[in-house]
Amino acid sequence: MRFALFALLCCAGTALADITVGVSVSMTGPGASLGQPISNTFALLPKSIGSEAVRYLLMDDASDPTSGAKVINRFATEEKVDVIIGSSTVPVAIGQGGAASESRIALLALCPIPIDPAKQAYVFAIPQPVPLMIAAVAEHMRANNVKNVGYIGFADPWGDLNLKAITASGTPAGLKITTNERFNRNDTSVTAQVLRLLSTNPDAVFVGGAGTPGALPHIALNERGFKKPVYNTHGVVNREFIRVGGKGVEGAIAPTGPVVVAEQLPADHPLKQVGTEFLKRYEAAYGAGSRNAFAGYAYDAVAVISAAVPAALKLAKPGSAEFRQAMRDSIESVKDVRGTHAVYNMSPRDHTGVDERSRVLVRVENGDWKLVR
After folding, report:
1. I need a surface site. Which of 40, 207, 255, 358 has the fewest CB within 10 A?
2. How many helices (H) and strands (E) does the chain have?
3. pLDDT digit string (tens) for 285-301?
4. Whole domain around residue 209: which residue ranges?
């Protein structure tokens, strides 16, 4: 019922749309705080790409890998979409990549899943790769004399990715990972894990979480008087994380895309203008302080798709298998696409296409995200 209603809202007035974009959104489940701003963004996007009308067909994947795969299958077999924007929840998006590849439809994930372009020709990712972002965390730790780091993260692929990244970036910097504690996204307590972590007396803690569940370790650490730095992934940078964590997440440090703090960027930053303009539109629609990284990822996905459409249209018409293939090939070739998070330059060897310009560090100060200078 949710899908039927949401699709109707997105398609109103565009029944004859030429280009159909399927969008998988975690509107419910543990990833809902990430999915909501994504769905909000599509109401603000243009209803045409060049001279072609476009229809955004949104469907709830419920933050569940099985549901996510069903969404992709429906897009491929029933809706005949031309391109897919995949989930913001890592376990869901990883499975969706396989389903999209089988259907030979390009998928742009809204979370930083690992991609081997040689084996996953149809899978792309809009967010910054985990190693790129966590390297910034390791650099900040080293600059602030952190030696021993306690790790606590999700008991799923997202937790695995971040532990691997902090280990790879931290070891050359002289960091020692003292723990590998895990928790589930729907857990309500991490007391035992935090007590084990604190027993190693770390200089700092790195939380491999995302969304509102990522606040749980912070709350537990704060309750036990932990005053040392607590670092995070770019998956927590939204307003709901601060709302749920309250004073328990004050001082939390995380990497994120520049859009979150666009006004605070230097005047010559290449993404300042795009980010500032997007934030004005988003907050005008959804209220002051509603900004978040995931709304920006949705915007950037459509920017990449829009850049790819003209070349694809020269080869085939929307709705055909030939157009879907042309879109995949064209997405892989886009250059200098300026989004809110990054300047995207895709290639056959790089299906993310971002560099160091796509990351900044932010800190929670007085209940808001502030640029770490």
Report:
1. 40
2. 12, 16
3. 999 989 888 899 999 99
4. 130-256
